[in-house]
Amino acid sequence: MCRRGLLVAGLMLAGLAFGAESPDEACTVSDIQPEMIDLDKPRDQLARQSNLVIPPGAKIGSIRIIQRPIFDTSDPKQDNFLYHALNTLNTPTWESALRSQLVFVEGDIYSPGLLEESERVLRQREYLTAAWVGVTRLCGDEVEVSVLARDTWTLLPTLGITRSGGDNTTNAGISDPNFLGSGKSLGISYTKDPDRSETSVFVDDPNVIGSHWQAGFSYDDRSDGRGRSAYLERPFFSDRANWRFGVAGVDDVREESRYVGAQAIADYRRSREYFSIDGGWRLAERNERQLRLLAGYRYEAFGFQPLPDQPALDVLPDDRTLSYPWIGFDYRQNRFREMTNLTRLQRVEDVRDGFLWRTELGYSGSGLGATEDRVVLNMSFQDSLLATETNYASYGLSQSGTYRLDQDRVENLLGTLSLEYFHGGSVRWTGWYTSLAFTAARNLTADQQLLIGGENGLRGYPSEYQQGDRRVLWTLERRYFPDWHPFKLFRMGGVVFVDAGRAWFADGQSNGPAGGVLRDVGVGLRLASSRVEVQRMLHFDLAFPLDGDDSIDALQVLLRGRSRF
To answer: Where along the chain do its domains lie?
Structure first.
């Protein structure tokens, strides 16, 4: 009897096992898998989209992290002793560090926007060269999300020289934006420029204890002062985050100069103390448009002292303190487009295909410790005019300044209107770029100057060559993006450019040795590593000034590190 019962039970279990489907049989695998994606080809990343049809209400059941080393030694072109050694010496980014960057977790309702936003966050990290996030498996009402990322070599000693506007800057140091694979950044550096020498130490943690809180501090020991800063914040880490909070402080002392015709005519000591605490709340969202409420308190104190053995300034800035609560709003359109070869070399770039408007209004009163009663108003607006596969155009408007109630006038009022246009680089190896910016200022204090020269866009001229309360700058560039990848280490680009601009005073004051419009032409080389410090590129420009006085060299050589093309 027992044997018969065991036989029946065994047959029943066998029948159940035979009739049941295995987990793999109940799942559908995407045609696109991370192994197929070439992270050295940005257009390949954009083209690889999942073919799965995700049912409404599906959940994210699992998150799979796939990390690629710096060099793919399975590729014969990268299979050598040096690349093997660098892979071995590099500490891979912790999986927990990558997971903490994502704006979704297992169990969340699936939304394509969550995956797209996580890609944007990962692409901003200095320790990654590229990232891809996609659905790779559908099992009933649950999806598997795969996160593909490739490390970059981050422990980098630096020793170099930068030349811009006729001035040289030397630097040396060591930094690591991915210390031991943790995603945390630290470094020490020494810099010497025409104004000062400076030794700096900094630490930055973008995900404190694996959370979305961020913290950091820096200390600067200068030949003419010091600098200290620290912050702690929980930002709007995602478009879907409901709140933010931040607190920050700065203590900075340095010597500053006033310039006339690229010459420093007098130096003075400036001290700045700054403290801020603020919060924000997401109020509403509709049709990709989101409204956030912002509020906080700021304290900012400036002190000025003459230096011994220096020519006396005609007007030494008055000490001023602003202490004010403020309220504002952030209204944005959360729509983006992925493009290539706009400001980077052969990298996927995320550009906002919509508007972003932020406004702050505060009242700085003597009852709160301010030196005068002021109304503080800051505003910025940015919007895209055109965003297609081959074209991207945007414009922006910004304004900052205060209104002094005791003198019934504005002070340090600054407004800028700018336009940018890119054409062709996303699908061809050549492209056009042009930009136009106009800035107007009113009632600037003596420590504030509106300058133009080699350091801020007019590449054929010395730094601070003209000054005024109006400034205009136009740039036109023909850019070259060859799909050439020597040793799988570098990307190269070229540029032919024309700059034209001027700074002047509306009341006709002298604005420098050459008062008219300044023009230059030139050629340049761009060099960006695809494996080391990928967020910056080397700029080498030769600029020929077409105007100016006899003191200007006929050729300006500029050697700089920049984050944009």
So the answer is: 27-151, 449-564
Q: Name residue, tokens 């309702």.
A: 109
Q: What element of type H or E holds 525?
A: strand 518-529
| Amino acid identity for residue 531 in this structure | R
Task: Walk along the chain (565 residues) and give the pLDDT tens digit of each residue.
Answer: 444 444 444 444 444 343 333 445 589 999 889 988 988 888 777 777 777 889 999 999 999 999 999 999 988 889 999 999 989 988 899 999 999 999 999 999 999 999 999 999 999 998 999 999 999 999 999 999 999 999 998 887 776 676 665 677 888 888 899 999 999 999 999 998 887 899 999 999 999 998 999 999 999 999 989 999 999 999 999 999 999 999 999 999 998 887 776 666 668 899 999 999 999 999 999 989 999 999 999 999 999 998 887 666 667 788 999 999 999 999 999 999 999 888 988 888 999 999 999 999 999 999 999 999 999 999 999 999 999 989 999 999 999 999 999 999 999 999 999 999 999 877 778 999 999 999 999 999 988 999 999 888 899 998 889 999 999 999 999 999 988 889 889 999 999 999 999 999 999 888 888 889 999 999 999 999 888 877 789 999 999 999 988 888 899 988 888 888 9
Nearest to 550 by CA among 514, 498, 509, 517: 514
Q: Which CATH topology does 27-151 take? A: Ubiquitin-like (UB roll) (3.10.20)
107 burial via Cβ count (<10 Å: 0-12, 13-18, 19+): exposed
* β-bridge mates for residue 419, sequence order: 395, 436
Q: Are 157 and 176 in contact (CB under 8 A)?
A: no
- What is the three-class DSSP state of 550? coil
Task: Decide: 120 and 350 in contact? Cβ < 8 Å.
Answer: yes
Query: Mapped to the 3 state alphabet, what secondary structure does 100-136 carry?
Result: CCCCCCCCCECCHHHHHHHHHHHHCCCCEEEEEEEEE
Token representation of residue 136 = 């790779």
- Lookup: tokens for 1: 């009897």
Contacts (Cβ under 8 Å, ≥6 apart) of 40 = 130, 346, 485, 488, 530
Within its chain, how far is the Cα of 146 from the centroid? Answer: 26
Query: What DSSP line would sit under 248-285, residue for residue?
Result: EEEEEEEEEEEEETTEEEEEEEEEEEEEEEEEEEEEEE
Task: Give the Cα separation of 84 and 502 in Å (integer).
Answer: 52
Structure tokens at 100: 């903490």
How far is residue 169's CA from residue 175's CA, in Å, rounded to a whole number? 18
Say which DSSP state 80 is in: S
Around 180, how many Cα atoms within 13 Å sit in the side-chain half-sphere?
A: 1
Structure tokens at 266: 């007098």
Both tokens of residue 326?
């403020």
CA dist list (Å): 306 to 133, 267, 268, 342, 376 = 57, 7, 5, 45, 28
The runs of H, that is alpha helices, within 67-206 are 81-89, 95-99, 112-123
